[in-house]
Amino acid sequence: MTKVLTNRFDLKGGACDIDVYLKTGGYQALARTFKDFTPDQVIEEVKKSALRGRGGAGFPTGMKWGFVPKESKRPKYVVCNADESEPGTGKDRDLMRYDPHLLIEGMIIAAYALGARDNYIYIRGEYWYIKEILEKAIAQAYERGYLGKNVLGSGFECNLYVHPGAGAYICGEETALLESLEGKRGHPRLKPPFPAVVGLYGGPTIVNNVETLAAVPWIIQNGGEAYKALGTEKSGGTKLFTVSGHVNRPGNYEVAMGYPLMSMVNNECGGIPGGRKLKAIIPGGSSVPIITAEEAEKVNLDYESMGTVGSMLGSGGVIVMDETVDIFETTMNVTHFYKHESCGWCTPCREGTRWLFKVFERMHRYEGRPGDVELLYDLADKILGKSFCPLGDAAAMPVQSAIQKFRDDFDRRIKSTLVQINTAAD
Amino acid sequence: MFSEANEKKLDEIMTHYPVKRSAILPALYIAQDEHGYVTDDDIRYLAKRLDMRINEVEEVVTFYTMYSRKPIGKYKLQVCRTLSCMLMGAEQITEHISHRLGCGIGETTPDGKFTLQEVECLGYCDLAPVLQVNFDYHEKVTSESVDKVIDGLQQK
Ligand SMILES: Cc1cc2nc3c(=O)[nH]c(=O)nc-3n(C[C@H](O)[C@H](O)[C@H](O)COP(=O)(O)O)c2cc1C
Ligand code: SF4
Ligand code: FES
Description:
The complex is a heterodimer of chains A (about 425) and B (about 160).
Chain A: H1 18-23, H2 28-36, H3 39-49, H4 61-66, E1 77-82, H5 91-98, H6 100-114, E2 118-123, H7 128-143, E3 159-164, H8 174-181, E4 205-209, H9 210-214, H10 216-222, H11 224-230, E5 238-245, E6 251-256, E7 259-260, H12 261-268, E8 278-282, E9 291-292, H13 293-297, E10 300-301, H14 303-308, E11 317-322, H15 327-341, H16 347-364, H17 372-383, H18 390-405, H19 407-411, H20 418-425
Chain B: H1 4-14, H2 24-35, H3 40-49, H4 54-63, E1 75-80, H5 83-87, H6 90-101, E2 114-119, E3 131-133, E4 136-138, H7 143-155
Parallel strand pairs in B: 1-2
Antiparallel strand pairs in B: 1-3, 3-4
The complex binds flavin mononucleotide (FMN), iron/sulfur cluster and FE2/S2 (inorganic) cluster (FES).
């Protein structure tokens, strides 16, 4: 299979050194960009590639870049979203620690396409050692003239800074990220205006995920059409998935869009330990609806196919659960996460996630009251679509899908069935 | 005031942004690095240094989980409790550490050496369960490997 993102992963960090990166074809796409592409042509090429945002929402990247106004009084910015906090996801981590220059090269090309001089990588604070890896790589890129006042003698000035977050999932949401970068609490902004028009310090700003930007050099080198051809008609290219939970070989795997989910589980990841049976998979990070083992059999890893089973590709965090797992427990676990990470800005999410968790707590003690399962579903309904930013939906969808598909695991927590439970649990 | 080296570091960081206030998150890490936590003096000082009001700095400090407003252990033992780690036995790891140190979740040992915390997803889901000690990651931990980590820190 053609690899776009993970060609240097086997070097286990060796490619952090710019000389190794150069020897393995690095910065050639950038040189080519200045030689053969106008900024608009870069955007056109990305449009042709059918590349979609890898941060979770899957928005077409070329289209987003096209929204940036050509003329702007305020400076424009490219901001890389390296906040990677969606439970189940650890792909940007490896992209940055194994091949930092690939991201840097992608960012410089994006900055050239959009006319942005100063650019930022917003990285989650826990990834401190990766921040240091990036800073070293950036220093090397300055030394060799890939960054700075006059990139490769083109007259284009490009600067790149790494900015640490400090432990807040909501700062992965692009407008909260911009607030945070401006030195404030990470509360989301009202959209529209979208960041592409009014973003960082009021200037037009493109926020893209690490993986999205890391795909750009390949697209420039090989052409948008070639990239698209690697995947499906509507989901171009390849994608990096993090597989965690009950598989023999958890890890990050790059596959072509459209690759069958169960091939990933059984081939790349070596199947489920101890010959146990699959129970459920959360295919795109904890925010997306859960799917059953039967659904997992018929679904492929691309945006459209995931939709057919009522789920989403999300961030590409595949969480695998075997038959020993109680879906009530796993859903309570993610609800705790959203309750903890709710930024408190709007009422449905702030209060709703606390309520949800309260009901979970009493059911956890097998003290659920008749009607509590319906209450959970209803509470989730009051959050879904009614909160200020998508974090509310992310809290509601897992609860609703889990109840729809694994109702038994919830019913067992209602008090009237207590006797039955105790025998089942022992 | 910070040490001369850290003052220099902060000066350099401030050149990254068109507004001073943007440097607040990196600046708070520096404060925490110097004093172990963010002190009242740090808050007053940074407000002045970054042209912010004192309550604006305070607002930021309390929003982000990686800053502490009170003294904590020299080593922050952070066990991830989120789904992928839970599936791989994170709870037992937390219990094991808690038992060994005689210290509950959120508490600090009497000698001021360790603080035990349960935290949310650390981005190491495929390498679960994971323990982060200050900024150092320990992946695929077991009771035994955690014991070794703690043994090592106790000798420091
Ligand atoms: C609550 C929440 C958390 C998010 N976390 C991340 C994240 O950690 N990393 C990321 O790239 N995108 C995250 N996103 C998506 C961003 O808002 C945004 O869509 C993305 O950075 C755009 O880049 P892309 O088009 O390249 O995916 C999050 C969104 C929400 C609502
Ligand atoms: S939905 Fe939640 S995270 Fe989003 S603004 Fe409202 S409270 Fe904050
Ligand atoms: S769930 Fe523990 S690191 Fe992601």
